[in-house]
Amino acid sequence: MDFFLSRTNVVSAAAISLLALLGTRFFNRRSKSHQENKTMASSSITLLDPPSSLPRNWKHHVFPSFHGADVRKSFLSHIVKEFKSKGIDLFIDNDLERSKSIGPELVEAIKGSRIAIVLLSKNYASSTWCLNELVEIVKCKEEFGQTVMPLFYEVDPTDIKKQKGYFGEVFRKTCKGKRKEEIQRWKHALTEVAQITGYHSTNWETEAKMIEDTATDVSNKLNLSAPCSDFDSLVGMESHMTRMEPLLQLDSSEVRKIGIWGSPGIGKTTIARSLFNRHSQEFQLSVFVDNIKKEYAIPSSSDDYSVKLYLQKQFMSRLTNNTCVSISHLGVVEDRLKDKKVLVVLDDVDHLEQVEAMAKETYWFGPGSRIIIVTQDQRVLRASGVNYIHEVNLPSYDEALQMFCMYAFDQKYPKDGFQELAWKVKDLVGCLPLGLRVMGSYFRGMSEQEWTEALPRLRTHLDIDGEITSILKFSYDALGVENQSLFLHIACFFHYEKVDIVKGCLEKSVLDVTHGLRVLVEKSLIYIEEERIKMAELLLQLGRKIVREESIREPGKRQFLHDANDIDEVLSDDKTDSRSVIGIYLWRRKDIACTNARAFKRLYNLRFLETDGKCINPQSINYISQNLRVLIWEDFEIPCFPSSFNPKFLVRLVMHYSELEKLWEGTQQPLSNLKWMDLSYSRRLKELPDLSTAVNLQELSLRGCESLVKLPSSIGNAIDLRELDLRFCSSLTKLPSSMRNLGRLSTLVLSGCSELEVNLANINLESLDELNLSGCSSLKSYHESSTDIEVLDPWRRRKSRLRQLVINGMEKLVSLPQLPDSLWLLDAEICESLERLDCSFRNPDIRLNFRNCFKLNQEARDLIIRTPTNEYAVFPAEEVPPCFTHRSFGSSLTVKLNQLTVGKSIKFKACVIYADVGDDRYRWDDTSVYCTITSGRNASIAFKKRVELFLPGHLFTFEVEVETEEVTSTELLFDFDVTTHGVYEYDCDHETWKPCKIKGCGIIELLEVPLLSFRDGDEDCEPSDTERFADDNEDYEPSDIEI
């Protein structure tokens, strides 16, 4: 990974910028196919891109509008406290004199706040001050795109919208004697705010939880709306962008490959990041595949075709944001992307195979696509047929000085009194951006005297060999002993590892890992990205060089062994004392095969080992160190650890694809330090050891352990367990009742456990965020229930934080009860017996998947259609239901409005049914539905929704919002279109692709949504209730259901 001039995390900036763009609702702009920004539960309106008139210098994070007598001393005070704890600044008007009108100071406060929260209470409308505040807030929302979040505190949104009930009585009293125009403004504002999805106090068990969720939502919205400035201070970047313009030719429909080539540390990656940040929104799809050399290394033992299949799968997974991509041949990229305008950046490429797998030919991509390949090896570019190459040269003297000063002084020129010192250091360091960054970070904050004292030491280092390594080592030498040790641990063993794993594995080796990581980040020796610790390639080389120089001729006297030949030498000699070695990393080297069964005998202090079964004799485990803390050994070939194996200090155990049948014989072993255990695809594993002492175990993965019959009851002692993955444990029959003790378990995956009988009463459902029961057809909900579940009702009278429930393939499930309000994904595909949904879905961001649930009764189908959601729902249907007042065969229809609407937007519920291709073997994979709306002469893409999988004979329903300012006619033409990468013939040896067509579509307006019978769209309708689509069961009351 290369570095340029930026002290902030460019990746985070790109992500925030992209999310902010994706949060915008488009009506008069063309939607892009970037990763969709998931709105949060109970969120307010989606963040909008602010127009140029929106104030850029925010004075406050949040402006709260409230009726003081209702909430100031109770609910509001708790909100203020929670917001302050999260660093959220609220405007509070305690010092303002209240009158009937609001003054310019208050108007400026509203305009100067990023978010307006309207706390609507019973007596809110009794105050003309509040009503005038609300008018101004709605005005800012409509003119500036200000984010508005309503909190409905003990009041019904419908009463606010229609000014009825007690709220309406209060409002009418306030309106007495007021001008008609003023009343109309108040009504408009109340109607607008009531239609925004917000927080309802009746949906939360406690006010504290509602306030906490609101504060979290606000904090996230502030983060997403924060302007990106990560590239603002990049010295010389505009020059690079200008030089690349004729190479990119972004206005051309030609597909181009462009290379960015230069030496390590010169800034190639940062240039690519800046380019991606500027232009990614101009493409339908975009992906930045970083750190390819490390993350997508070429295994030496694999054949060329398998390597390319693996790389193409990873590439498509990143591009489509889908972790379950299936790639059976190398033509998939072409088939999927040949009609898409894409921007692809392949960073840190070091093998031709990487390019050939992900972007071999330009005709794989649609017109206007750009493929950027970043490498230090020009041969890769030539072999890939890249004709347009941007060579990154060293910056000029002036640019280099500016870079150094930005890191040393946070400005582009030296501070007073430091001019001569800065020039001297810069002259010693040279012009390589990485060296300038490291040395600038080193001198940052030092006094003039400290600079003067440090210069001779730096000069001494450079006198030795004069290379950049000496510059980097100077910064290393300035670290304390503990931080030097941490640096070497990362460079030699823990590079690209998760932060929490590094902390857990090193907490006994390094005194203060958290502080040490902070120091290394401050000194620019590491950076943390996506919760992983990363290090520049030159710094990796530096760390390994430092260790190698501990003993050049005798590798057994070094701390870490990374070179295959050195490892072979040490492990082949079981007579030489190698007690200095604490870590060995040897991975997939077919040229090394250590057959010595006593290989580890003299490595008394070995703590960290990562290898695979093809490199080292597995019998050598008999002599493994008693101090081992990390053991990662793939393809381990013996059935049981020897009796001499002592896991007392073991923190992490990873044994993928092992031949283990059990871990060890005999009595209980001390496992108090064990935090992560992963035995995935150990297909012969029949039992786990006693876990009574594994009280600190956090993650346990037994995926694909198909011989495992049961879990030990002692698993209940693993009270810190957060993730348990048992997918495809096809011989597992029961879960122990002791699992009820796992109060921190957030993820439980049981998919593919075809023989498993699950008693949900014995699982701690209160703690789970994700529960996957796919394929578990034999379940219990209570001890006295039958073994074949017909009704799943475990959440009644239980609190729950469950967000994802996957119950695919539960063939005997007949009914679903009320599920937790926290749920945002219900995946119930192929529940063949499912008939009833005795529930409602209250999360406005829920996604419902009932594919192949053909026995759903009419009430269940009605409920699915009625459910308001910002996502989508899918269920079997052969025709558009009559509840959609506008229906059509084909892909378009016209909606006639009674009159032009007054509000800012109109919402519609829409649906489409895909045409059957006449062959059950086909299904649509990775589909996007577009809705083009034409009003008079205005036409634009108003909506795009992406669906992972869609089948013929299924109805796909979603909501569409139309900006009323673009509505110039009482007739709206809705035209639906589907873009898909084809129809996948899933039971054939080869993939075949067919086009996708829409069979029928339907629309119903939600502006004044009636209470419909979804069996007959022609009957008279009653007014809607609070939720717009309330259940038409008279006996239904939300309070009747306990969660």
UniProtKB/TrEMBL annotation:
An example molecular function term from Gene Ontology annotations: NAD+ nucleosidase activity, cyclic ADP-ribose generating
For this protein, what reaction is catalysed? Answer: NAD(+) + H2O = ADP-D-ribose + nicotinamide + H(+)
Q: Name the GO terms of the biological process aspect.
A: defense response; signal transduction
Query: Which UniProt keywords are listed?
Result: Hydrolase, Leucine-rich repeat, NAD, Plant defense, Repeat
Q: Does the keyword GTP-binding apply?
A: no
The record's InterPro entries line, in alphabetical order, gives:
AAA+_ATPase (IPR003593), Apaf_helical (IPR042197), C-JID (IPR045344), Disease_R_plants (IPR044974), Leu-rich_rpt_3 (IPR011713), LRR_dom_sf (IPR032675), NB-ARC (IPR002182), P-loop_NTPase (IPR027417)
Q: Which residues form the TIR domain?
A: 58-222
Gene3D superfamilies xref list:
Helical domain of apoptotic protease-activating factors, P-loop containing nucleotide triphosphate hydrolases, Ribonuclease Inhibitor, Toll/interleukin-1 receptor homology (TIR) domain
Q: Which domain of life is it from?
A: Eukaryota
> Could you tell me which SMART domains the record lists for this protein?
AAA, TIR
Region Disordered: list its residue ranges.
Answer: 1018-1043
Tell me yes or no: is Hydrolase among this UniProt entry's keywords: yes
Any Pfam family: NB-ARC
Q: Where is the composition biased (Acidic residues)?
A: 1032-1043
- Under Enzyme Commission nomenclature, its number is 3.2.2.6
Name-wise, this protein is: ADP-ribosyl cyclase/cyclic ADP-ribose hydrolase
Which species does this protein come from?
Answer: Raphanus sativus (Radish)
Gene transcribed to yield this protein: LOC108820540
